[in-house]
Amino acid sequence: MSRTRRDPRTERALHLVAGTARPRLDRAAAPAAASPTGRPRRDPRAEVDSALVPGPARRRLDRTLRQTGLTGQTGHIVHLIEPEIALTAPPRIVVVEEPAFLVAAVPDAPGGRLTAHDRQVLGAARLLAEGGGAVVALPGGPVEELGGAGADRSQVLAGESEFDPEGRAAALAAALRRLKVRHAVFPETAEGGDLARRVAAALGEPLFAAAESLTARAVTRAARGRRVEQRATPPRLVSLTADAVAAYAGAPREAREINALGEVAAVPRAIVSARVVPADPATVPLSEAEFVVSAGNGITDFERFRALVAALRATPGASRVVCDAGLMPRAAQVGASGTVLDATCYFALGIAGAPQHLQGVARCEHVVAVNTDLHAAMIERAGLAIVADAQEVMPALLAALQAEETRE
Ligand SMILES: Cc1cc2nc3c(=O)[nH]c(=O)nc-3n(C[C@H](O)[C@H](O)[C@H](O)COP(=O)(O)OP(=O)(O)OC[C@H]3O[C@@H](n4cnc5c(N)ncnc54)[C@H](O)[C@@H]3O)c2cc1C
Fold it and tell me: Would the CB of 213 count as within 6 Å of ligand 1?
């Protein structure tokens, strides 16, 4: 990573007060341009001044009140709900106007959301696009957050119906031909892996399937019962296993919509009509569940807990203590010695958040927790927390869900 180097001498010179016999520095008079990174500089003295509580003889600071401005205006105090937002410049969107070549990323994006694996696929495409290329995302439906995940261009390429793998593969092969992509990266999942093989057959090109590591120069995978490592320069079509490459973590990119629709060759349809039947969340294995609601030792009313899980159309989970007590089946245990989840949302009721339990929810995108203890580790891990008795929260949630259902 290359960062602009600081030059302390130049910075010092910018603060020098002119006309004094001895060198005197005025740190408060820092010009904004003095920041080597170009970001507005913090002024700690002005911040302290703004937190001074007027009145008492002894100096007293109220740290809950922060000043929004960057220059010191003593006495003008404003609530700052998100201090970082005011103190850092908004992220710049990276634009690649005329890419030298294109690299396609084909995310699964179930339900219009990128999975962790999809983000890694976009991260891999970014690695392959180093040196003037652009990443074009080609999902099967509208997807949010493509720019944040590293896409410079995007185009939705769907089949004719909800489940049309042949149609989607034909549309994708035509788009790859039309865009003359240098590489196309797929997730090695049930859907993405199937699509990659269909596209490879349609293009008559080899697929480097189930790659376990990828750089701009080499791609590897295990073979012959993992006794051999196959290494190659990245071919045009690659499918990537989970956790092979890190997700893109740079500045958001443009994800500009383009027209990538190529001429689709007529495909003889083997599947006449099909549709996706959603799995029953009550019986789906925990490792595949999208939304898990778990009970911990803080739950005493299991009848309400089960009613809440059903009303939320979630998959039930539990902490080890609850499973050990026989209150939930062992298969429901979430954690290091239970199931490690890949869910989008995890709702923990009355769970302390022991390290072994937190290992099981490390990959969950959103965590919601209910606990009576504000300092519980689960509350710290949660993006949204309710500090209250779970026995009271559950009926309140059930009533709110019921009220919403009757309104609809
Ligand atoms: C080798 C090993 C492996 C383990 N593997 C796992 C594993 O895979 N999964 C796992 O879960 N554990 C595992 N454990 C156990 C783990 O260390 C914890 O003991 C366990 O997770 C605690 O479960 P808990 O949070 O439900 O219970 P507790 O630790 O008893 O916490 C209960 C929580 O509920 C809150 N609470 C109490 N009353 C209420 C109320 N009325 N409303 C709301 N909140 C309330 C309390 O504040 C507390 O935070 C393992 C332990 C070992 C040693």
Answer: no
Q: Which atom of ligand 1 is nearest to the CA of 319?
A: 11
242 and 301 both lie in a single domain: no
Is the CB of 389 inside a 6 Å radius of any atom of ligand 1? yes
The first and second tokens of residue 54, run together, are 């007027």
What whole-number distance in Å separates Cα of residue 108 and Cα of residue 116?
Answer: 11
CB-based contacts of 82, cutoff 8 Å, min separation 6: none
Q: Is 327 in the pocket of ligand 1 (CB under 6 A)?
A: no
Alpha carbon nearest to ligand 1 atom 36, residue: 298
Total domains in the chain come to: 3
**Ligand 1 midpoint to CA 320 (Å):** 7
Is residue 334 classed as helix, strand or coil in its secondary structure? strand
Q: Determine the atom of ligand 1 nearest the C-alpha atom of 389.
A: 42
How many Å is the Cα radius of gyration of the chain? 27
* Same domain, yes or no: 129 and 47: no
351 in the same domain as 225: no
10 Å Cβ neighbour count for 334?
30
Express each pLDDT in 173-218 by its tens digit.
Answer: 999 999 999 999 999 999 999 999 999 999 999 999 999 999 999 9
Domain that holds residue 313: 286-407
Would the CB of 335 count as within 6 Å of ligand 1?
A: yes
Question: Ligand 1 pocket, 298 CB below 6 A?
Answer: yes
Two tokens at 317? 């989970």
Does ligand 1 have an atom closer than 6 angstroms to the CB of 361? no
Q: Are residues 309 and 376 in the same domain?
A: yes
CATH number for the domain that contains residue 141? 3.40.50.620
pLDDT digits (tens, 9 = 90+) for 235-284: 999 999 999 999 999 999 999 998 867 666 666 677 777 777 888 999 89
